Amino acid sequence: MTSPLEVIETPRLLLRATDVAMAASVAAYLLRNRAAHAPWNPPMDDRMFTAEGQAERLDAAVRHEADGSQIGWWMFLRHDSAAVMGHVRLSQVARGPFCSAMLGYAIDAAHEGRGLMREALVAVLADAFGARVNLHRVQANARPENVRSLGLLDRLGFEREGLAREYLFIDGAWRDHVMTAKRHPRWPAHQAPGQR
Ligand SMILES: CC(C)(COP(=O)(O)OP(=O)(O)OC[C@H]1O[C@@H](n2cnc3c(N)ncnc32)[C@H](O)[C@@H]1OP(=O)(O)O)[C@@H](O)C(=O)NCCC(=O)NCCS
């Protein structure tokens, strides 16, 4: 079981673990970015853009974070920490000989191009590969057209491993995705998971 961590601080950001009290702010962030995120993320039910719908979704996320199957972070600017302005989520956290998770992320379009997602992901990956979470592999998949996301993954040291055909239903069709992964930087090849 992963020990709880409520907040990660970076030079410009606070990354907060999921709390149902964020529901209205999360709904507002998703609504503001509904059109901007639509080409890259699976469609969401209208209810997900309401505080009530998000309260239910965040309640489920809190339970997933408590049982260790997900690790979710909501991004806030340090100098203006009232509004959610991005998110990062490790899902499908697997243990045993896999020790892997799937990475997802998005930022408010108003804050794109400032290096803030890179700053968040550097911190989340340090935690994911650190003593607390201790994953061996983090996987991230993006549409070939998503050059911003693939460029970011390249800069973070994710390696391209292949193309998953018709991987996700997004924006009205089944979309191919480039599969990428980053491995733990210092995990010896013959060291078993339980020995770390
Ligand atoms: C993908 C996404 C998270 C990338 O966000 P981003 O802000 O471009 O990513 P970064 O934090 O790495 O910022 C990089 C940009 O900031 C610039 N930058 C400015 N200051 C910087 C700094 N201090 N450090 C690093 N980069 C900086 C870089 O030059 C780069 O600009 P460029 O793209 O014009 O070359 C964002 O486009 C997004 O949310 N898209 C919609 C959802 C989505 O696609 N999610 C991923 C699905 S796979």
Q: Topology, pairings included?
A:
Blueprint: E1 7-9, E2 13-16, H1 23-32, H2 34-37, H3 51-67, E3 71-77, E4 86-94, E5 100-107, H4 116-128, E6 137-142, H5 147-155, E7 159-170, E8 173-183
Parallel strand pairs: 5-6
Antiparallel strand pairs: 1-2, 2-3, 3-4, 4-5, 6-8, 7-8
The separation of the N and C termini measures 14 Å
CATH topology of the domain at 7-136: Aminopeptidase
Spans of at least 5 consecutive residues whose pLDDT stays below 50 are: none
The level 1 CATH classification of the domain at 7-136 is Alpha Beta
Strand line-up in the sheet with most strands:
1-2-3-4-5-6-8-7
Major sheet characteristics: 8 strands, mixed
Which structural class is indicated by helix and strand composition? alpha+beta
Topology as a string of helices (H) and strands (E): EEHHHEEEHEHEE
CATH superfamily of the domain at 7-136: Gcn5-related N-acetyltransferase (GNAT)
Name the CATH architecture of the domain at 7-136: 3-Layer(aba) Sandwich
Beta-strand percent range: 25-35%
Determine Rg (CA atoms, Å).
16 Å
The average pLDDT is 96
**What percent of the residues sit in helical stretches (DSSP H or I)?**
25-40%
List ligands, each type once.
Answer: coenzyme A
Tally of helical segments: 5
Q: Which shape, going by the Cα principal axes?
A: globular
Number of strands: 8
